[in-house]
Amino acid sequence: MYGLRHELLPPSGVEHAVFIKLTPSSLGEDSPGASSSNNRKVVANLVVARSSLLRIFEVREEPAPLPTLLEAEAKAKDGASKPGTEAVEGEVEMDREGEGFVNMAQVKSLPAGSSVIPSTVTRMVLLREHRLHGNVTGLASVKTIASSEDGLDRLVISFRDAKISLMEWSEQLFDITTVSIHTYERAPQVLAADPGQWRGVLRVDSSSRCAALSLPKESFAILPFHTAAELEMMDQERQAGRYATCFVSPLPC
């Protein structure tokens, strides 16, 4: 017996998000698919996920747009607005910046009637969008041994079916590529558990030494990452991978 599933509407909202230096443009380098304007600065990348949908954004700082002629004429009309149509607090700033939000703290700090315009605005630009084979349960940023060469972070993704994927950015493809996939769905702890009774939680060590995924029966799947100090102590034959052998470790009683 086979079960069929058809998605009527795409996922909306965000379940997981991570701020990451994924693309060379986030380091101040030009990217083939990115804007070459000197007035734009890429602060970092934002990766968000919900269900099986993954999106990668660039967070850019751009010069704030100048007031339009119509806006200037509207300001020149004193008392021209009709009663009951006055802009609420922050509405003018929201329209000027072209965003769906406004920093109320900044608005309240300006004197009444002030026409000060911020020098820059922050925008999110969509780079890539992917439908993944599985529902995402976690996103994390990690620095591998390759990060010491290009300065970029790597993306770790965990899935509901007890999988971990290590991803990195490829300038040739202008997209993310898979470095490795680690699956634990055949681990005894997972096979003996009810899929509806547990949900894996992904965590990455702050020093990027390993990634851990919680499994049923109070156990963890550990994916260790090589460090430069470890590689210096290894033989040349053992320096091929960016990570060490993964394993499942139960919690001590």
Overview of this protein structure:
With 253 residues, this protein is an alpha+beta fold. It has 6 helices and 12 strands. It has helices at residues 69-76, 91-97, 104-109, 147-150, 188-191, 228-233; strands spanning 16-20, 41-50, 53-63, 120-131, 136-142, 154-159, 163-170, 175-183, 202-204, 210-215, 219-224, 247-250. The strands form 3 sheets. Strands 1-2-3-4 form a 4-stranded antiparallel beta sheet, with no helix packed on it. Strands 5-6-7-8 form a 4-stranded antiparallel beta sheet, with no helix packed on it. It has a 4-stranded antiparallel beta sheet with strand order 9-10-11-12, with no helix packed on it. The longest helix has 8 residues, at 69-76. It is globular.
What is the SS-derived class? alpha+beta
Beta content: 25-35%
General form:
globular
Contiguous low-pLDDT stretches (5 residues minimum) are 32-36
What is the spatial order of strands in the main beta sheet? 1-2-3-4
The radius of gyration is 24 Å
Largest sheet composition = 4 strands, antiparallel
How many helices does DSSP assign? 6
Terminal Cα span:
41 Å
The count of strands amounts to 12
